[in-house]
Amino acid sequence: MIQHSVSADQVSFKEISPDYLYRVQRGNDSFIMHDVEVGLNNSSSMKLAQSKSGTYSVLHHAGVPAVEHHFLLNNQSRFAKGNAYDLAAKFFQKHNEKVVLKQDNGSQGVNVFKIETSEDLKAQLSHLFSLQLNACLSPFYTSTYEYRMIVLKGEVKLLLAKERLNSWKHNLIGGSRSKDVPTSLIPTLSKMATQTAHALQLDFCSVDILDTTTGLLVLEVNEQVMLDEYIKDDPTRKDRVSAIYREAILERLK
């Protein structure tokens, strides 16, 4: 998909490591592409986006409505000072014993747990810590729809809705269905997405916004833009996605 997007622009891809690392070149200009990462974001912003709690802290400071993510440092860390289990228990009680526990550097719905008992909270937190991961907690919101916006250089290039079907999660890879965003929501979602990208200083990213009973809240930000599952639901979307990748690659080669 990415290579095809610039097939008419005299851009070549030389494989360095199969399906993983490439040298992208046009004329005398080139860059190394890591997986689907074209390198438009600075390293500090990328690390920040990888942390759910760090992302929330920056957005909260910037006044962007977002789902709270409370950081829990692995108890086995040499930097640990407090007891993460006690902190988790307090957060659990504060939010009516219904929370979401996940690894702080979450990845595509892996190691994400809906928690409704103290016993499960302790067990799953121990599981994450045993994997040498830090964790975070957020309140649980019942929500049918989650919206994803693709932002490139301060402009929203694509909006899609993810409808939850058989799971409480909204991951497309987990069975949710992608749909078009209601026209009435586009201005608000676009504004929130661009504010989010600006706050995190990201030039190319996807922003996920949860539709809750208390309003629209930014759930997470992904510093790598992956749209394979979106295309699977409707192959006619391929041209639009290809145009986004093309613009990103040509921007990187400037």
TrEMBL record:
> In terms of domain of life, where is this protein from?
Bacteria
A Pfam family found in this protein is RimK
**Residue span, ATP-grasp domain:** 56-250
Signal peptide range in chain numbering = none
Which PROSITE patterns does the record associate with it?
ATP_GRASP
Please provide, in alphabetical order, the Gene Ontology terms of the cellular component aspect for this entry: cytoplasm
One GO MF term: ATP binding
One GO term (biological process)? SOS response
Q: Which keywords does UniProt give here?
A: ATP-binding, Nucleotide-binding
Q: Which PANTHER family match?
A: BETA-CITRYLGLUTAMATE SYNTHASE B-RELATED, RIBOSOMAL PROTEIN S6 MODIFICATION PROTEIN
Annotated protein name in UniProt: ATP-grasp domain-containing protein
Q: Which organism encodes this protein?
A: Halalkalibacter akibai (strain ATCC 43226 / DSM 21942 / CIP 109018 / JCM 9157 / 1139) (Bacillus akibai)
- What is the organism lineage in this UniProt record? Bacteria, Bacillati, Bacillota, Bacilli, Bacillales
